Amino acid sequence: MKTYSFKRLTLDILDIEKPDFEGKLDAYGSQGWQLVSSFDREKGGNSKEVYFIFMRATGE
């Protein structure tokens, strides 16, 4: 049976506009992590944070 590990990356919504945003995602990808979901939620006031959920196979 295949097993999986999961990892969450949490960023402020404004981090998506920063130049190193794609680099952060690329770093996860180079370690074998695949993005499976993303969603945002209210952080307080007018601020939001974004969750990125990654997974990768860990065994068979």
Q: Main sheet?
A: 3 strands, antiparallel
Strand content: over 45%
Q: What is the C-level CATH assignment?
A: Alpha Beta
Order of helices and strands: EHEE
**What is the general shape?**
flat
- How does the helix and strand content classify structurally? alpha+beta
Total separate domains = 1
Poorly predicted ranges? none
Number of strands: 3
Number of helices: 1
Distance between the termini: 5 Å
CATH architecture: 2-Layer Sandwich
What do we call the CATH topology?
A: Alpha-Beta Plaits
Fraction of helical residues: 10-25%
Describe the structure.
The protein is an alpha+beta fold and 60 residues long. The longest helix is centred in the middle third of the chain and has 10 residues. The chain has one domain: 2-Layer Sandwich (Alpha-Beta Plaits). The protein contains 1 helix and 3 strands; from the N terminus they run E-H-E-E. The protein is flat and about 45 Å long. The protein has a 3-stranded antiparallel β-sheet, with no helix packed on it.
Task: Identify the notable features of this structure and list them briefly.
three-stranded antiparallel beta sheet; Alpha-Beta Plaits; 1 helix; 60 residues; single chain; alpha+beta
